[in-house]
């Protein structure tokens, strides 16, 4: 079983973007236009880091295209940037992409970035040894309704009949950045957390928490993309060649990760340190990597199942229909 990682308090459950900005910023022809790619500084987004380090977009985009990268702390900030044309595409959690699509945003998911990486952990010393013991406990997720929150709450409700206080249930919900969970465990402010990598491995290394439910048993843990590559539907319709250029670079980055895991780990560790000023040990990187599968393949049915769970948990007001969200044209051989 492979594991995945997410570094920053992110992957949120608000979906993604409307049309990309002006035709000047998105045309991507050879007249010196600029393309901005966005991603998060976490291990689920290593494809973005590898593409930047190896200058893969510079190789696939038309000559004369200036390439810049912008880093985001959460899905909401990414979606706003995509909607306003500040970026032309990049990696974001599936939750924000789906929610924004359901709200009318004209976007397309054109590839996946990775799967896995969500772990449910219990505080050491809490006396919690099984999910059945989570009644009347306090759990943390990065944000209300984010991807990791839905994975946790869907599992609790479906398998153990437990709900958060948001649904008048038996578990108290608080939010916070995953990077702070180790301290929250140490100070006994939370009992349980739904933790994206690399923070699960870091908590284990520091001895403040233990894995209660691993990636393969978390809801949608092995099938749901932890990151998806998104762009505007306007760009897909008006400049499909440019979108193909971007997806080709993303596919090349993903293949590089699969073929060169040790070099990709080094790139990830260095990039994360540069962006966040936080250094991860090799053991944390290695452990996180085992929970993640890097792939650009994406299936609409996997996203639809997740969206249905979001509706079941009342994060979405209307029953979701994601038809038209995913366009696999650009990843097909």
TrEMBL record:
Coiled-coil regions, chain positions: none
Alphabetized SUPFAM superfamilies for the sequence: Periplasmic binding protein-like II
Gene3D superfamilies listed in its UniProt record: Periplasmic binding protein-like II (3.40.190.10)
Key words of the record: Cell inner membrane, Cell membrane, Membrane, Signal, Transport
Superkingdom classification of source: Bacteria
One Gene Ontology term of the molecular function aspect: ATPase-coupled transmembrane transporter activity
Signal peptide annotation: 1-25
Listed CDD domains: PBP2_NrtA_CpmA_like (cd13553)
Pfam families listed in its UniProt record: NMT1_2
Compartment(s) of residence: Cell inner membrane; Periplasm
A GO-annotated cellular component: periplasmic space
Family designation: Belongs to the bacterial solute-binding protein SsuA/TauA family.
NCBIfam families assigned to the protein according to its UniProt record, in alphabetical order: SsuA_fam
Protein name: NitT/TauT family transport system substrate-binding protein
Source organism of the structure: Thalassobacillus cyri
């Amino acid at each position: 079983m492979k594991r995945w990682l997410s570094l920053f308090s992110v992957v949120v459950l608000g979906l993604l973007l409307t049309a990309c900005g002006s035709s000047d910023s998105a045309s991507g022809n050879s007249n010196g236009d600029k393309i901005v790619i966005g991603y998060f500084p976490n291990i689920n987004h290593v494809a973005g880091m590898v593409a930047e380090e190896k200058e893969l977009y510079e190789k696939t985009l038309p000559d004369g295209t200036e390439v810049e990268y912008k880093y985001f702390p959460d899905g909401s900030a990414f979606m706003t940037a995509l909607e306003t044309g500040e970026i032309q595409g990049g990696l974001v959690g599936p939750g924000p992409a789906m929610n924004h699509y359901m709200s009318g945003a004209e976007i397309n998911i054109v590839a996946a970035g990775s799967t896995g990486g969500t772990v449910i952990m219990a505080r050491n010393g809490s006396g919690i040894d099984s999910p059945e013991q989570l009644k009347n406990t306090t759990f943390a997720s990065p944000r209300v309704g984010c991807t990791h929150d839905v994975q946790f709450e869907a599992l609790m409700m479906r398998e153990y009949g437990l709900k958060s206080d948001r649904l008048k249930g038996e578990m108290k919900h608080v939010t916070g950045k995953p990077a702070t969970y180790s301290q929250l465990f140490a100070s006994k402010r939370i009992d349980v957390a739904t933790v994206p990598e690399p923070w699960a491995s870091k908590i284990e290394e520091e001895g403040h928490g233990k894995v209660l439910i691993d990636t393969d048993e978390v809801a949608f843990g092995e099938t749901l993309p932890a990151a998806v590559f998104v762009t505007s539907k306007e760009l897909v319709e008006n400049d499909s060649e440019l979108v193909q250029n971007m997806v080709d670079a993303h596919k090349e980055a993903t293949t590089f990760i699969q073929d060169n895991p040790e070099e990709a780990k080094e790139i990830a560790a260095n990039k994360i340190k540069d962006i966040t000023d936080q250094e991860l040990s090799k053991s944390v990187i290695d452990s996180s990597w085992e929970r993640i599968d890097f792939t650009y393949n994406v299936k609409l049915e996997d996203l639809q199942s997740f969206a249905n769970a979001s509706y079941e948990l009342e994060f979405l007001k209307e029953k979701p229909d994601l038809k038209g969200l995913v366009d696999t044209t650009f990843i097909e051989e």
